[in-house]
Amino acid sequence: MTTFALIGAGTGLGLAAARRFGTAGHTVALIARGAERLDALAAELARDGVRARGFTADALDPASLATALRTAADTLGPVEILQYSPAVRADFMKPVLDTTADDLDAPLTFSVKGPVTAVNAVRPGMRELGRGTLLFVNGGSAVRPHPERAGTSIAFAAESAYARMLHDTLAPENIHAAQLIIPGVIHPDSEHSNPDTLAGRLYALHTERDGFRHYAEALPD
């Protein structure tokens, strides 16, 4: 049995994705900052017959991500699928003219150093398995920069470039990197961007392995 590792476990998309991959037969490593929340999510998934366990880490502390992922693999089994989708902080989204160089430290750690650390932690195990999937989830500013959200626009663009390079470089090793862009707000009443539908899209990216960038819905005009 292999593991689906979710960085950014929460009650919305995170829980839905964990349930989708878990019911497909993967163990689930839930990675986020709050131990109590992780325990609650693991208990909810257990009621659905999903074996899940929480591992505390912070996307702004790359070393903690590496430790959590190594511990998860040792405890639950090798990581076959990694999803990087932690929720961004509000202070990442200052207007561009109000953004200083120092303001970019946290967004770039969050969206570049975090993913690079996570991928480097799981890639050896994927190579041993002979397969793997790397899933990156971003908002619309990853492909359409927004001047009122400078931090995420810059950091998501860098994350996108990294993920695209992984897609091209790791394909010969049967490791598939893909990005899902969610332009709008994730909401249960949304036709295309509700948690369950998005989780289904992410699972399809893993199984169908078709292309790099995908959109949950069309970018607004």
From TrEMBL:
Against Pfam families, the record matches this protein to: adh_short
**What organism is recorded for this protein?**
Streptomyces neyagawaensis
Coiled coil: which residue ranges? none
Would you tell me the protein name for this molecule?
Answer: SDR family NAD(P)-dependent oxidoreductase
